[in-house]
């Protein structure tokens, strides 16, 4: 039997990791590469003053994780997240005062799930 074909995924964020998972489930040998170290720590940290990364997961992302076919994966993610039904748009009015405008995610009451890492 021939060895499995190799798939290389560049980018270890949510989409890259899920893509690697899908390829592995289809029988490919997967190599996953990420340029940066843990984004919470080190000199390349996006926010060196904090050690939290908020990550919003849409309904489309939830479906993709569910369809990956890993038992318990989606449950573990959702158990450690909280639903959010609006996002806040921050802007300034004509006088320079900050305005916060809430916007719902979807007309049918869709929610995103927020997880902080």
UniProtKB/TrEMBL annotation:
GO terms for biological process: kynurenine metabolic process. GO terms for molecular function: kynurenine 3-monooxygenase activity. One of its GO terms (cellular component) is mitochondrial outer membrane. Its cofactor is FAD. SUPFAM superfamilies: FAD/NAD(P)-binding domain. Residues 6-46 form the FAD dependent oxidoreductase domain. Keywords: FAD, Flavoprotein, Oxidoreductase. Pfam families: DAO (PF01266). PANTHER family: KYNURENINE 3-MONOOXYGENASE. This is FAD dependent oxidoreductase domain-containing protein.
């Amino acid at each position: 039997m021939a060895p499995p074909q190799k798939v290389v995924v560049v980018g270890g964020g949510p989409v890259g990791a899920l893509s690697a998972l899908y390829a592995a489930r289809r029988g490919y040998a997967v190599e996953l590469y990420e340029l940066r170290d843990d984004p919470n720590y080190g000199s390349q940290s996006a926010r060196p003053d904090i050690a939290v990364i908020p990550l919003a997961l849409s309904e489309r992302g939830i479906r993709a994780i569910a369809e990956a076919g890993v038992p318990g994966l989606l449950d573990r993610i959702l158990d450690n997240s909280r639903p959010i039904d609006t996002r806040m748009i921050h802007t300034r009015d004509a006088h320079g005062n900050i305005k916060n405008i809430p916007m719902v995610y979807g007309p049918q009451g869709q929610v995103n799930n927020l997880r902080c890492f």
